[in-house]
Amino acid sequence: MAIERIRVRARSGSYDVLCGKGVLARAPRELSHLGKHTKVFLLSSPHVWKHWDKKLRRTFGRDAKVILFDDREAAKNLSTVGNVCRQLVRAGADRQAVLVAIGGGVVGDVAGFVAASYLRGVSLVHVPTTLVAQVDSSIGGKTGVNLREGKNLVGAFYPPRLVLSDPRFLETLPNRDYRSGLYEVIKYGAIGDHALFVYLEKNLEKLLRRDAQSLAWIIARCARAKARVVSLDERESGLREVLNFGHTFAHAIETVTRYRKYLHGEAVAWGMIVAAALSEKVAVLEPAGVARIVRLVLRVGSLPRLPQVSAAKLISAMRADKKSRGGRLRFVLARGIGTVVAGKEIPDSVVGAVWAGLREDTLLNWPHDTQPLTR
Ligand SMILES: NC(=O)c1ccc[n+]([C@@H]2O[C@H](COP(=O)([O-])OP(=O)(O)OC[C@H]3O[C@@H](n4cnc5c(N)ncnc54)[C@H](O)[C@@H]3O)[C@@H](O)[C@H]2O)c1
Ligand SMILES: [Zn+2]
User: Catalytic: 51?
Assistant: First the structure.
């Protein structure tokens, strides 16, 4: 498949997302088109670096300075941001520096926030290396870190100057992280792309085997969808909210488990199941639609069990989320496969009832527990 160039419009300037096998090799040329810069800093994590060290050094040259940091979700915080900024000062990064974030969503969100705030803003390039990052987090300019009190509560909108998305990186991605990305892909089908949803229903096994052609197809399709949505609504004043399908609940279970039990995509998987159940409860989606969403999500693989917490604790975590307004819980609900309605306010009692039902439901007997996160 040829390399595809997708344009994203942003207030502070438009940028391109280049998708396709071998795109990394284009980095030096593409970087030179961004204008004059002093030094290139490669911001990544030891996990990513150990697989791609040689290739990245060859691509970016000896002069590029490497800064590695812990990319566990539990380390996606202000302390990591501070450490990276201090390393940049010590390495002499000035306002014409370019930061290249090479990694998954955590590296991208942390490095993005560093780029937004270091010397009040330096150039940022994303090189996403996970499926989540290639289809979602590297596009759209959201950056930020977690607080104990909640997910992504400190951050900035800071679009990159360029995104280089090479599916070759996925060859070294652990299975669980790969599957985690497939849930975000299902999300794109559920929120606005019926044909993609059907494609996933038909080709999931191929994708689980990481079939290169199918993978290239879904990555470009999701990247185009994300680019379209964020170009129309960069600051999430309307349309962009649809991307939060499954995320109100996802962020709450990530928070109550202190970011240690679920990969982000796994939390989104549970979140989509809950959103589908809520959609049925308030009569916007029929049971057949709910079953299709739940079935596809569960076919991807086993999920870590839901946390043993009360509805009250869960609801209070949801209330602290950015998506709640004036303390009222808001959800993106499914109306059909490929159509959603955003900003639906749902009473606590309904959310509590769905949560209670879900814990007793037969659903819980399908997935099995996976190992707790050790990284
Ligand atoms: N900014 C946004 O718009 C946005 C959108 C979606 C998700 N996110 C955020 O992204 C994060 C999740 O990102 P993720 O799913 O990419 O997970 P991740 O960044 O935690 O990466 C998963 C794991 O894979 C490793 N890894 C990454 N690339 C690898 C490769 N090519 N080979 C081997 N190992 C590799 C990482 O070191 C890490 O251990 C969450 O914090 C979420 O909130 C942000
Ligand atoms: Zn997400």
Answer: no
Measured CA distances, 127 to 25, 165, 340 (Å):
12, 6, 30
Q: Let me know if 120 is a catalytic residue.
A: yes
Q: Please, are residues 244 and 226 in contact by the beta-carbon 8 Å criterion? A: no
- Check if 50 has its Cβ closer than 6 Å to any atom of ligand 1: no
Distance from residue 108's CA to the centre of ligand 1 (Å): 8
Single-letter residue type at 186: I
Taking the CA atoms of residue 231, residue 234, residue 238 and residue 243 in that order, the dihedral angle to the nearest 10 degrees is 80
pLDDT of res. 366: 40
Catalytic residue list contains 206: no
Q: Inform me whether the pLDDT recorded for 369 exceeds 70.
A: no
Backbone angles phi, psi at 161, to 5 degrees: -90, -20
The one-letter amino acid code at 254 reads E
Q: Which residues contact 234 (CB under 8 A, 6 or more apart)?
A: 9, 10, 11, 140, 141, 157, 159, 240
If you average pLDDT over every residue of the chain, what do you get?
A: 92
Q: How far is the CA of 137 from the centre of ligand 1 (A)?
A: 8
Q: Ligand 1 in contact with 47 (CB < 6 A)?
A: yes
- Give the model's pLDDT for residue 233: 84
Per-residue model confidence as pLDDT tens digits over 212-225: 999 999 999 999 99
Q: What is the mean pLDDT of residues 50-70?
A: 97
Selected catalytic residue, list 47, 76, 151, 247: 247
Asked if 226 is an active-site residue, the reply is yes
